[in-house]
């Protein structure tokens, strides 16, 4: 799995960037907010999410982890592919997507070209319970630690809602715990 790429910005346009790293040029599909951040930079670092299909390989790149995290959550919704998720994050900021899902504002999602009423409702229904993970990616220390712990628990197969509840309980019992301690103590309660 690819995590990030650091290198020289070789080419940049609103839909993709070419980053040269180790003598190879990688074409990375980007969102408009990432494009804005990359303008004028020579050395860049992007968080990556690869999508490999039988007939196509794409690398999607993001300027921050929270944008990548929302992208991956959008991909988990049936009918939302990489290009649609990128279009949503190009039309709405990561915070606006979180707000639209959290407030069940299908109209905000439908305003994105290519997202119809059914897809907008499906995004809200599928991600309403997962929005806590996206909200936890705010750059405050405790919230980002809780987001990392939640991500790890979800990777281990625990349901998002159950893991969130247990992590909140652990955080109340032991405020300011490290990610490792949050996970260990949550596993004892799951």
General description of the model:
The chain is α+β, with helices and mostly antiparallel strands and 190 residues long. Helix content is 52%, strand content 20%. The chain has three domains: 4-62, Nucleic acid-binding proteins (OB fold (Dihydrolipoamide Acetyltransferase, E2P), Beta Barrel); 66-132, DNA polymerase, domain 1 (Orthogonal Bundle); 136-189, Helicase, Ruva Protein, domain 3 (Orthogonal Bundle). The chain has a five-stranded mixed β-barrel with strand order 1-2-3-5-4. α8 (141-155) packs across α9 (160-173) and α8 (141-155) packs across α10 (179-189). The longest helix is centred in the C-terminal third of the chain and has 15 residues, at 141-155. The two termini are 28 Å apart. The model is unreliable at 133-141 (pLDDT under 50).
Q: In whole angstroms, how far apart are the ends?
A: 28 Å
Q: Which band does the percent of strand residues land in?
A: 15-25%
Structural Rg: 18 Å
Number of contiguous helices: 10
The biggest sheet, with number of strands, parallel, antiparallel or mixed sense and barrel status, is:
5 strands, mixed, barrel
Considering DSSP H and I runs of 4 or more, what fraction of the residues is helical?
40-55%
Q: Average the pLDDT over all residues and give the rounded result.
A: 87
Strand order in space, largest sheet: 1-2-3-5-4
Number of strands: 5
């Amino acid at each position: 799995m690819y995590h990030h790429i650091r290198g020289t910005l070789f080419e940049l346009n609103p839909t993709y960037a070419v980053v040269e790293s180790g003598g190879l040029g990688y074409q990375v599909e980007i969102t408009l907010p990432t494009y804005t951040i990359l303008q004028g930079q020579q050395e860049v670092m992007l968080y990556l999410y690869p999508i490999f299909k039988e007939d196509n390989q794409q690398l999607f790149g993001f300027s921050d982890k929270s944008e990548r995290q929302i992208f991956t959550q959008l991909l988990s919704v049936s009918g939302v592919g990489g290009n649609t998720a990128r279009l949503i994050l190009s039309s709405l900021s990561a915070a606006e997507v979180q707000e639209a899902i959290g407030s069940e504002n299908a109209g905000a999602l439908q305003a994105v070209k290519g997202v119809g009423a059914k897809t907008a409702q499906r995004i809200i229904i599928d991600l309403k319970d997962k929005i806590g993970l996206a909200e936890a990616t705010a750059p405050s220390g405790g919230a980002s630690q809780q987001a990392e712990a939640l991500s790890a628990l979800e990777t281990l197969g625990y349901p998002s809602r159950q893991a969130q509840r247990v992590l909140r309980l652990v955080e109340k019992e032991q405020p300011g715990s490290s990610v490792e301690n949050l996970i260990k103590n949550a596993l004892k309660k799951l």
